[in-house]
Amino acid sequence: MKNYKNHFLALLSTLLCISCTDVVDVDVQTAPTRLVIEASLDWEKGTQGNEQTIDLSASTEFFSSGNAPIITGAIIQVTDLNTGDLFDFVDQGNGSYYTDEFIPAVGHRYQLEVIYEDETYIAEETLFAVPDLTVVGQSKEDGFSEDDLEVNMTLIDPEEEGNSYFFKFWKRGDLLPDFEEFDDEFVNGNKVDWFYEIGEDDDTDEKEAFQPGDTVDISFYAISPAYLKYMRILINQIGGMGLFESIPVSVKGNCINLTNADNYAHGYFRVTQVVKTSYTFE
Amino acid sequence: MSISNKTRIPPLIKICIGIISLTAAIFTANAQQSFTINGSITDIDNGETLFGASILLEGTTIGVVTNEYGFYSLSAPSGQYNLIISYMGYHSQVKEIQLNRDQKLNFELAEESTQLEEVVVTGDEPETVVLRKPEMSVAKMNIGTVKQMPVVLGEVDILKSLHMLPGVTNNGEGSGGLHVRGGAQDQNLILLDEAIIYNTSHLFGFFSVFNADAIKDMKLYKGGIPAKFGGRVSSVLDVRQKDGNNKNFEINGGVGAISSRLAVEGPLFKEKGSFLVAGRTSYAHLFLMLAGEENRASFYDLNLKANYELTDNDKVYLSGYFGRDVLKFGDIFDSYYGNSSGNLRWNHIFNDRLFSNMSAIVSRYNYKIGFDMEDFDWLASINNYNLKYDFKYYFNDRFKLDFGASGIFYEFDPGRLKPTSSESSINPLVLDQKKALESALYVNAEQKLSERISLKYGLRYSRFNRLGGQVMNEYLNDLPVRYNSALGIYESGVVIGETYYEKGDAIETFDNWEPRINIAYQLNDNSSVKAGFSRVAQYIHLLSNTTSVTPVDVWAPSGKFIKPQLSNQYALGYFRHINDQAYSVELEGYYKTVDNRIDYIDGSELIGQETIETEILNGESRAYGLELLFRKNKGDLTGWVAYTLSKSEQRTPGGRAGGLGINNGDWYNTPYDRTHDVSVAGTYRLNEKWSFGTNLVFQTGRPVTYPNGQYEYEDISVASYSDRNSDRLPAYHRLDLSVNYQPDRRENSRWKGEWVLGIYNVYNRKNAASISFGQNRETGANEATRTAIFGIVPSITYNFKF
């Protein structure tokens, strides 16, 4: 529902004016640099999930270009709080920290600890089981536009309430992926149909609709309710906040700085189960 | 309805009258024998009652102005007088009277100009009255003034004209509504023939819901709100529909590029009554459809008014409004929203000094969003039923009393999900309906203490019962929102149980005493100073966390978790007429505080939200400013220059939820803060055929929230944002021009036509309605995208009347 509402409000602004947007130069404030922790321990359903990577980088000025500065020299450890197992992530020297010993388990709670420049960051997260996702094919008439192709999927939401999901769609050849999230608040226990369509952007050519031959990679994650809240704000704010959308806010992740609370880290420590698939349009 | 007369007065009113007569006796004890004249003042051409026309006894300071229904009552010692009856834009009348008995005198005034507009008035009541009257912080505009101002897309818009006044701003293009003295949009009580209007705009602010052909006049109280009004802390906009021509059958209409309108009015029952029916519709969607555009937006509305004079002392009025906006986004969504209202009124004159009006009013705002693809509808509404009874007693020249009572019953339906087919994967859902009763009693006195000092003071007692019939959550430690100090965010409290409140029970009851006082001291014939204080309570709140208020935002009543907003406003003003009223200067300063102004926690979800209390923090706001209005009232060139210097800010500490609150609990700008606001409006009348109008507007940019950094996450660049409202959009400014041309009328033809050519935003300034930040999907670079709604917009409209 919330997604629909947001989509509706975003569309309201487009209705107001056709071709009345342009790119302008704007002065913005600059916040102090923060550590960015991208600790996404994703267990692909049907695999062992032992190989995991955590990336560290630094935030930059909003309009600066180029890659984000990498962060090396940190010490990273993940603990399975149910079993007490410790997993060390080894500094690869390029901003990545790697382990091949991780043991994912549904329902387990994990703790992340990052020590960097004498400050300790911690976060906790629980792993949820993901239902199967079935790609049922493609269509034109089931999406937002009847002219554009979309890929259709279905899933069955489990009986119990409180399931949260996150989709990552990435059309091969595109620079950026697309995200969607939802929870079972309005669809609990139902068979849920989902589709992914890229709406043609007439103004900027930034977005091209799917053509036969295009391939899209689909990742479908079961996530924690806390991460859903985080991603909901983040996804909502990607691409900017229009006239009828919420006033943008800072998105705060779950990585707490124990040494200096104000110097919290951006990013998130998530532990998920994921279904990965892809689809090539005919 | 039974027709009352002096001998058949209901007991309660009898008691009231008894008390009043007693008081009156005290006030009149020392006066020599005096007599009263009363009656009504109307337009000679169409019988419309005139609100604010003045009756003055020449050579004295004894005078009075007509009320909303054109009624007046004036008492003076016996003697021979010249009565001067005047109203701006009309020829004054002088009548010699022998005041040796009480008598009823009705007057009909004739318009000065022969323009197409019903009434062309550039100012307010005549100076002598204005300067002496304690009323301040008020802007009264006649529809004629509004019709002369240049407009976007050729549609006359009273809200846009109000934006030209000091202390009144909009939220940028593409958003309706008003912000008065740094107040929010939901803090304005907007009344159309006394019915509450919840959403004032069509097509997100392109047009207002007020059809100029159906409107007679409007009065905006920016402060010094009379005790008869209550329920909103910032302002009252009192818009009144025309009664309808009771002399001749008349048709008004206009054909524009975007919309057209038609109004029909005429007498009923041998001039005992009259009616008016007015309609408007946009048809731009037709063109969009022809152009192959799948998204469409259109609106229509309908105004209705009828009145009938039962006896000399009894008149009934029926008025109605129905408006709809209809949106369609291809096959994805279809939506409608709008206000509807109806009002049945009964004016009764008990005697030559006591005027009364009873109203029964219903109004409703509702919307639907149909999610066609998902096969479900989202519906929400607010309804209210309002009964009020108002009296005005004219004791004597020095003392007048208003008093009355009102009750409003509210029904809030914050939202329901309705699957529209069995294939829908959406489960039905109905959010809790909420009910409340807002009641009030008030008394307000207008008193002339001396030739120089006059006072207006009143007291309103308001009471709000949030009624049961629903379940309310109970939270751990009674905290619906709590601060998660580890993560540094506000989140929903822990639900530990729920309580069901029976239908007969009140969930919560609030009451407030709201004193209002204004004082005027006349320095000399041409100038006066005035001061005022008012306290107002607001019990219902519009929930909106978006940059611009949207049509799908919902209202929520005060209750267990949302406290009533309470404002205190202090104002001081200096008023001066120059050169025999040819020019006037108004200078006012104000300071206003509002307690219990809520703001929303980061990531708040308001729509489809059962527990609003988990999304808000309680705070306060304050606003202060200086307003200057310089007017030229006479001559071929008329108009005004308005300047406002102001500040509007709010503070939302964590309070019991813990933490420092929003923006660390510091004061931050409200979205309606405008440091500078300059408006220039002018009309030049070249001759009988040609006239020209212009608007010039400059406003400091609206406070907004911009990014202050970026970081890489999940293969994209994510923006981090700075403190709420700590940046500003670029300044807003524009110039509009218009030309009115009235061709010669053919002899013996009743048809009068008029062409209006307008250019909105002449120098094509791209004023940002919003600036959003995101990553270019091709280059990956961050960029700022401006949305500017109107560039230069020429328009042409043909208005007619016969």
Task: Give helix and strand order of chain A, one letter per element, not per position.
Answer: HEEEEEEEEEEEEEEHEE
Distance between the termini of chain A: 31 Å
Query: In CATH, what is the class of the largest domain in chain B?
Result: Mainly Beta
What would you call the structural class of chain B?
mainly beta
Low-confidence segments of chain B: 1-10, 114-129
- Determine and state the CATH class of the largest domain in chain A: Mainly Beta
Radius of gyration of chain B: 27 Å
Q: Care to count the β-strands of chain A? A: 16
CATH architecture of the largest domain in chain A: Sandwich
Which structural class do you get from the secondary structure elements of chain A?
mainly beta
- Helix run count of chain A: 2
Report on the structure:
The complex is a heterodimer of chains A (282) and B (802). Chain A has 282 residues and is mostly beta strands. Chain A folds into two domains: 118 residues, Immunoglobulin-like, CATH 2.60.40; 127 residues, Immunoglobulins (Immunoglobulin-like, Sandwich). In chain A, the strands form two sheets. Chain A has a twelve-stranded mixed sheet, with helices on one face. A three-stranded antiparallel sheet of chain A has the order 9-10-13, with no helix packed on it. In chain B, 5% of the residues lie in helices and 57% in strands. In chain B, the strands form twelve sheets. Chain B has a 22-stranded antiparallel β-barrel. In chain B, strands 9-16-17-12-13 form a five-stranded mixed sheet. The radius of gyration of chain B is 27 Å and the shape is globular. The two termini of chain B are 35 Å apart. The N terminus of chain B is likely disordered. At the A-B interface, helix 1, strand 1, strand 2, strand 13 and helix 2 of A face strand 46, strand 47, strand 51 and strand 52 of B. Chain A: Pfam families: DUF4249 (PF14054). Chain A: This is DUF4249 domain-containing protein.
